[in-house]
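During the practical work, I selected for study one protein's amino acid sequence and its backbone structure tokens, as given directly below:
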Amino acid sequence: LVNESVTGTNFNIGGLVGLNYGTISASYATGRVSGGVYVGGLVGANNQGAIIASYATGSVTGTGSNVGGLMGYNFKGTISASSATGRVTDTGNHVGGLVGLNSNGGTISASYATGGVSGVSEIGGLVGANFNGGTISASYATGGVTGSGVDVGGLVGFNFGGTISASYWDTNSTGQKNSAGGTGVSSFGALAGLVGTAAF
């Protein structure tokens, strides 16, 4: 979906799909997306579905919580080899450059976010909050991250009961020295050497 803006006033608002239960592969959305809760550049909410080799480039704006550059909420779903490059802005919590909230066994692998992120609390360059068995691996973030509240991180804002491995953020470009998981590096060159370009 190219350059089409999507606007909603409630929940499950996505640039391509509002609520996904299936598989989305090799797909993309490039337009602006705005909504309330569960708002994403590609998918609003992913309920046990799979997002593979897909991306979003448009800006995303939310007025509630669970807002991400690619997806607002990943519940028991899978995201792999996917990315988001648009700016993400929200007036609430759980805001991420890629995913706002990853929970209940949701997995994110070989994915990245480069857009700026701003919100209140539990704000991350890649994932705002990673809960209850959520897994993040071989992923990275480089966009600027700001939050007016607590739990603001370069890669992940808040992690409770989740696993984060082989994932990184650029401490200079994100403006964040801390994260709830992952490893901070001081340049994109160093980051690229760690994650490897083949995965992306």
In short: The longest strand covers residues 43-47. Helices lie at 171-174, 188-195. The chain has a mean pLDDT of 94. The radius of gyration is 14 Å.
